[in-house]
Amino acid sequence: MATTKHCHKCGWEWPLSPLPGRNDSCHQCGADMKVCLNCVSYDARAAYQCRDRRADPVAEKHSANFCEYFDFLRREWKGASTDSREQGARDQLRKLFGD
Q1: So where are the chain's domains?
Q2: Rounded CA gap, 55 and 51, in Å?
Protein backbone atom coordinates (compact mmCIF):
# COMPACT_ATOMS: atom_id res chain seq x y z
CA MET A 1 0.00 0.00 0.00
CA ALA A 2 1.25 3.50 -0.79
CA THR A 3 2.43 5.79 1.94
CA THR A 4 0.72 9.15 2.21
CA LYS A 5 0.56 12.18 4.50
CA HIS A 6 -2.07 11.95 7.25
CA CYS A 7 -3.43 13.86 10.21
CA HIS A 8 -1.86 12.42 13.36
CA LYS A 9 -5.20 12.47 15.17
CA CYS A 10 -7.87 11.16 12.79
CA GLY A 11 -5.99 9.92 9.72
CA TRP A 12 -7.42 12.38 7.21
CA GLU A 13 -5.15 12.40 4.15
CA TRP A 14 -3.36 15.69 3.37
CA PRO A 15 -4.14 16.17 -0.36
CA LEU A 16 -1.98 19.25 -1.03
CA SER A 17 1.54 19.02 -2.37
CA PRO A 18 3.12 21.85 -0.35
CA LEU A 19 3.89 21.38 3.33
CA PRO A 20 1.23 22.66 5.72
CA GLY A 21 1.74 26.08 7.24
CA ARG A 22 1.49 26.90 10.91
CA ASN A 23 -2.19 27.91 10.56
CA ASP A 24 -3.29 24.87 8.53
CA SER A 25 -5.54 22.39 10.26
CA CYS A 26 -7.20 19.08 9.49
CA HIS A 27 -10.41 19.49 7.51
CA GLN A 28 -11.96 16.55 9.35
CA CYS A 29 -11.10 16.95 13.06
CA GLY A 30 -9.57 20.44 13.24
CA ALA A 31 -6.19 19.30 14.62
CA ASP A 32 -3.13 21.37 13.70
CA MET A 33 -1.16 19.86 10.82
CA LYS A 34 2.30 21.41 11.25
CA VAL A 35 3.05 19.56 14.48
CA CYS A 36 5.86 17.36 15.73
CA LEU A 37 3.57 14.29 15.62
CA ASN A 38 3.34 14.69 11.82
CA CYS A 39 7.09 15.18 11.28
CA VAL A 40 9.63 12.62 10.05
CA SER A 41 12.02 13.70 12.82
CA TYR A 42 9.61 12.95 15.67
CA ASP A 43 10.88 10.09 17.82
CA ALA A 44 9.52 9.49 21.31
CA ARG A 45 12.84 7.90 22.36
CA ALA A 46 15.12 10.73 21.17
CA ALA A 47 16.24 13.77 23.16
CA TYR A 48 13.38 16.31 23.20
CA GLN A 49 11.53 13.69 21.11
CA CYS A 50 13.21 14.95 17.92
CA ARG A 51 15.98 13.35 15.84
CA ASP A 52 16.90 16.66 14.20
CA ARG A 53 19.49 18.21 16.51
CA ARG A 54 19.21 21.62 14.81
CA ALA A 55 15.57 22.07 15.82
CA ASP A 56 14.62 24.03 18.92
CA PRO A 57 12.79 21.97 21.57
CA VAL A 58 8.99 22.07 21.33
CA ALA A 59 6.99 21.48 24.50
CA GLU A 60 3.60 20.62 23.00
CA LYS A 61 4.08 18.02 20.26
CA HIS A 62 0.42 18.15 19.19
CA SER A 63 0.26 21.95 18.73
CA ALA A 64 1.32 24.02 15.72
CA ASN A 65 4.86 25.36 15.89
CA PHE A 66 7.39 27.38 13.92
CA CYS A 67 9.97 24.62 13.35
CA GLU A 68 11.78 25.34 10.11
CA TYR A 69 12.95 21.71 9.79
CA PHE A 70 9.43 20.24 9.58
CA ASP A 71 9.07 17.57 6.91
CA PHE A 72 5.68 15.84 6.64
CA LEU A 73 5.82 12.15 7.52
CA ARG A 74 4.60 9.74 4.85
CA ARG A 75 3.03 6.64 6.34
CA GLU A 76 0.42 3.99 5.91
CA TRP A 77 -2.43 5.01 8.23
CA LYS A 78 -3.34 2.22 10.64
CA GLY A 79 -5.40 4.22 13.10
CA ALA A 80 -4.40 6.35 16.04
CA SER A 81 -1.40 4.87 17.81
CA THR A 82 -1.79 3.69 21.36
CA ASP A 83 1.30 3.21 23.45
CA SER A 84 0.86 0.01 25.46
CA ARG A 85 3.29 1.24 28.14
CA GLU A 86 1.29 4.43 28.55
CA GLN A 87 -1.98 2.52 28.74
CA GLY A 88 -0.49 0.12 31.30
CA ALA A 89 0.67 3.01 33.46
CA ARG A 90 -2.77 4.62 33.28
CA ASP A 91 -4.40 1.33 34.27
CA GLN A 92 -2.07 1.01 37.26
CA LEU A 93 -2.91 4.55 38.38
CA ARG A 94 -6.64 3.86 38.09
CA LYS A 95 -6.18 0.70 40.15
CA LEU A 96 -4.09 2.56 42.74
CA PHE A 97 -6.64 5.34 43.18
CA GLY A 98 -9.67 3.08 42.89
CA ASP A 99 -11.12 4.59 39.72
Answers
A1: 1-76
A2: 9
